[in-house]
Amino acid sequence: MKKDIVCIGHITKDKIVTFPHHEVYMPGGTSYYFSWGISHLNQEKVSYQLVTSLAEEDMKAVEDMRQAGIEISVIPSRRTVFFENIYGENMNDRQQRVRAKADPFSLETIRDIEAKYIVLGSLLADDFPMEVLKYLSTRGMLVVDAQGYLREVRHEEVFAVDWKDKLEALQYIDILKVNEHEAAVLTGKEDLREACLQLAEWGVKEVLLTLGSYGSLVLADGTFYEIPAYQPHQAKDATGCGDTYVMGYVYKRVQGASIPEAACFAASVATIKLESSGPFSGTEDEAQARIDEARSLFQA
Asked: What H or E segment, with its residue span, contains residue 177?
């Protein structure tokens, strides 16, 4: 049966260090944050499946998710991706190391996937070869977070690099999520709107440009939408906020919400996630209440 949303990506082992001296070890990755987040929303509204890959010794993360009712297909891997994320006092700043890499996804392992929206949780540049990206673009609306394609690992250190195949790849991507730094690396443009327009010229249908505590900017069909950031009760852990934003956006778009409606919801769930470590664990009503509260304060 064709799903509304399928997310494909590695579940990781994460070490998260936050200011000043707090450490926590937990599963992570786009697919992990996306899947747990969407499981807390109204599952009667959308059908969802995760396709992931990790080592056998780390299957507890999958078992916990299955017990929570998340449908998961697992592709065996020799290793699990192991990230170390170190945040400074400013939660918008992150240092990252990669201690281990998993096997990339191949055409043979994803050939049967079909959905209205297919979300690629790219973590590293070789997670999804070009042939996989091209094929999946024929199986549903393709949603990609650029972050993985812009990460080069050298002796475990992560460096920002340009996406060498971007001019070919972006033709197949319907929705691309970037932050301001990634947009600049991809386009060579510091002006946010110029960067979005360049990505659209290269083929992207909807550009989601997130700006952390400064909100987000969305470009679709030549129209820009400025989306506010909602004030968190406390800023505790930014890990997975971008993944949560994409989750909220796709969750609403698949139901037919307008672009600004979906983006405001995405910003709201990302804010709620920021308030605690781990994936989004709020509710749809809570996310909508944040939007309504902010709107009423603005109109007052």
From this structure: strand 175-179
Question: CB of 15 within 8 A of CB of 83?
Answer: yes
- Confidence label for 294 from pLDDT (cuts 50, 70 and 90): confident
d(CA 268, CA 290): 6
The more confident residue out of 185 and 277 is 185
- Count other Cβ atoms within 10 Å, centred on residue 1: 5
What does the pLDDT read at residue 91?
64
For 26-75, give the DSSP string: EEESHHHHHHHHHHTS-TTT--EEEEEEE-GGGTHHHHHHHHTT--EEEE
Q: Which amino acid is at 14?
A: D
What amino acid is encoded at 67 in this protein? Answer: Q
Residue 300 has pLDDT above 50, yes or no: no
pLDDT tens-place string over residues 91-114:
667 788 898 999 999 999 999 999
Report yes or no: 51 and 7 within 8 Å, Cβ to Cβ: yes
Return the percent helix, strand and coil in the chain, to nearest 5: 35, 30, 35
What number of H helices and E strands is found in the chain? 10, 15
Q: pTM (2 decimals)?
A: 0.91
